[in-house]
Specification:
The structure is a single chain. The protein is mainly α. It is built from 23 helices and 6 strands. The strands form 3 sheets. It has a two-stranded antiparallel ribbon. A two-stranded antiparallel ribbon has the order 3-4. α6 runs antiparallel to α9 and α15 packs parallel to α18. The longest helix has about 35 residues. It is globular, with a radius of gyration of 25 Å. About 55% of the residues are buried.
Length: about 650
């Protein structure tokens, strides 16, 4: 009955390239509904996953290793399914219908997850199907389309809309992190400890129920505003023509074959990483993780390297036009009024030009994989490190270490409006030109380097601080550190009633020091991830934007493969009791990766000219990134620079 009602409603919503009523402020009259939907959906998602490791371990009986593996592999599934959602939206259903249908699949999964954890009705099989099946499919299916539908609401020929669209991508990320902040700050704590009249044993049931209510609100708000949206129809064949262009290129260029090897390598790396998460044998798990990391890294390098120059795209034996000439032609054509097509002799010139646009954004998008490796430290090593620091707030209450991820959310919520209103204009006045999204990304890699280095320094200081001492030994135990089995006299581990192991004690250093790396990761996220979202919209033909966003999201899954390989490679330095290890060593490796990516990024993006769909087209390629060093030096050397009013 519900499915029939939804289907009937969707059939009454027409596709339309214009609105019945044109709003002056698109952001507040149209996109606000999309932003509220995204905020509620992210509240739901992070509320479900924030403490799910504890659920796997304590409620369903998985070992600590298996619980960690399952927790880490869930985002990989979620960031794989956007490829399906993006394809369906671009080729068949359009964005609005795709979001609605996958949204109800998502809601069904969340509802069943809540039911399956009700005390007395626990059902592990139902929960696993709902979580790794319905949740992953539904959440991933809408992710590539929500932000793209928001971008569709603006007219790039209207200067006011151009400004509002830039703000939309910023505030879209702002909405994500308001929802995530509520989840990490309250729902994750409720899930493990209960809240008020909700006892701890009902914590997961009520936290999941709240998530289901939030998702219901998200879909209600989104669908209720359907009459306000511009809804473009599915292109119906665009991706097929894109692959026709690629096949044509494959027969006349070595780069095409190298990219094919690179894509296969990335898929193999992703598969090995996900498969290794379900393997309990330490030796086999290590081999799979390292192999997956190597395959993913090779694939990223091969694919990104061949896309720096796109002359090979559409190349035939009779024609080999330069990329710059094609760029000039693309800047003049009217893309919004044309559909991709085929000439009698194969892909049309327009189809070739559009394919070039997708390929040429892959180098910066693939570079962002490095950032997501640093980002993954928050739910992995940052969490483990925090659990062995002094968690007390007050005399008797220990903080749930997962709550610290709110530091990342706070950074994003604060920095997006501050950067948009003050920092970016200030930098532009200093350098005398646009502070482009590529420049922002480059700076983001420096900040992510600083974030991981800060965590490394804090870890060294944590070990040096010694073990916290209380009059009652039980108060020294961490409630979230893993149970250890160690006879090392130097470790603080005591017998733990009810567990085949020992509890780990906390260090003297306060856990609130970890707010520094969490906050810096949030700042780098603003500088990198927000820009990639915009890049995958403004620089991509309308017919392929959902697919481009799906590729962007897939890089997060690739990052999990790389991060798993790094973590396993330093397994000896990351024991259950970190006092017997050297967690700073994998941190140094990740920080080194961030800095190397910063250098590679500057080299890779130099040939890229953002000129097709972006408001940045009025700035030359040289203004795009080659003056980055000069820009930074001007800011550093002129700290007392007076800010002039733009009209003076």
């Amino acid at each position: 009955m519900v499915l029939k009602t939804v289907t009937t409603f969707l059939s009454t919503v027409p596709t339309r390239p214009t609105r019945v009523y044109e709003y002056k402020n698109i952001l507040m009259n149209v996109c606000i509904f999309i932003l509220v939907m995204e905020m509620c959906e992210r509240l739901c998602f992070y509320g479900l996953t924030g403490s799910i490791k504890v659920l796997f371990n304590k409620s369903f009986g998985y070992s600590s290793f298996q619980s960690s593996a399952l927790t880490n592999v869930l985002p990989s599934f979620v960031y794989l399914t956007p490829l399906l959602g993006g394809y369906i939206a671009d080729e068949h259903w359009g964005r609005f219908k795709t979001i609605a249908i996958f949204g109800f699949v998502y809601l069904a999964g969340v509802t069943l997850m809540s039911y399956s954890v009700h005390p007395g009705n626990e059902n592990k099989n139902l929960f696993m199907f709902s979580c790794f099946g319905l949740l992953a499919l539904g959440s991933g299916g809408i992710k590539a389309n929500v932000v793209t539908l928001g971008g569709d609401q603006f007219n790039d020929k209207n200067p006011d809309h151009v400004v509002q669209k830039e703000q939309f991508f910023n505030y879209f990320y702002w909405a994500i992190n308001i929802g995530a902040g509520i989840s990490f700050g309250y729902i994750a704590q409720m899930a493990t400890n209960g809240s008020g009249a909700i006892p701890a044993e009902y914590g997961f049931f009520w936290s999941f129920t709240i998530c289901a209510i939030a998702l219901t609100l998200a879909l209600t708000v989104f669908l209720g505003a359907s009459g306000r949206y511009i809804l473009y129809p599915a292109s119906g064949g665009t991706m097929g023509i894109f692959f026709d262009v690629y096949k044509k290129s494959l027969t006349h260029s070595l780069q095409g074959y190298v990219i094919l090897v690179g894509v296969i390598s990335m898929i193999v790396g992703f598969t090995l990483s996900v498969g290794g998460a379900f393997v309990e044998d330490d030796g086999l798990n290590k081999n799979l993780a390292i192999s997956g990391c190597a395959c993913a890294a090779v694939g990223i390098v091969l694919t990104g390297g061949c896309c720096i120059n796109t002359d090979w795209v559409g190349q035939s034996g009779e024609r080999n036009e330069g990329d710059q000439q094609l760029n000039d032609e693309a800047a003049e054509r009217k893309k919004d009024d044309m559909m991709l097509g085929l000439d009698d002799d194969g892909p049309s010139e327009k189809a070739i030009l559009d394919a070039k646009e997708l390929w040429r954004v892959l180098p910066p998008v693939l570079c962002s994989t490095s950032f997501w490796v640093a980002y993954s430290q928050m739910s992995g090593n940052f969490y483990a490190q925090s659990c062995q620091m002094n968690l007390y707030i007050g005399d008797n209450t220990q903080l749930n270490a997962a709550v610290l991820q709110i530091g990342d959310c706070i950074a994003i919520v604060l920095c997006i409006p501050l950067f948009d209103s003050f920092l970016y204009p200030f930098i532009e006045r200093c350098k005398g030109s646009k502070f482009t999204l590529l420049q922002k990304m480059a700076c983001g890699f420096l900040v992510s380097t600083a974030a991981v280095m800060a965590a490394a320094v804090i870890e060294i200081k944590r070990r040096e601080s010694g073990v916290v001492e209380f009059t009652t030994a039980e108060k020294s135990y961490s409630n979230c550190a893993p149970i250890v089995d160690s006879d090392n006299p130097d470790t603080c581990a005591q017998d733990s009633e009810g567990f085949m192991g020992k509890k780990t004690c906390m260090s003297n250093l306060s856990v609130f020091w970890m707010a520094i790396p969490y906050f810096l990761i949030g700042v780098s996220e603003v500088l990198i991830s927000v820009q990639v979202y915009e890049l995958c919209y403004t620089e991509i033909p309308m017919e392929m934007r959902s697919s481009a966003q799906a590729i962007n999201l897939f890089t997060t899954g690739l990052a999990s493969a790389v991060a798993a390989g790094i973590t396993v490679s330093f397994q000896v330095d990351i024991p259950n009791d970190l006092n017997n290890g050297h967690l700073e060593r994998p941190y140094f490796a990740v920080a080194g990766l961030q800095f190397i990516t910063f250098i590679v990024f500057i080299i890779v993006v130099r040939p890229i000219s953002l000129s097709f769909h972006s408001p940045l087209s009025r700035f030359s390629r040289e203004q795009s990134l080659s003056n980055l060093t000069v820009t930074l030096s001007r800011i550093l050397l002129k700290p007392t620079l007076k800010i002039r009013h733009p009209n003076t």
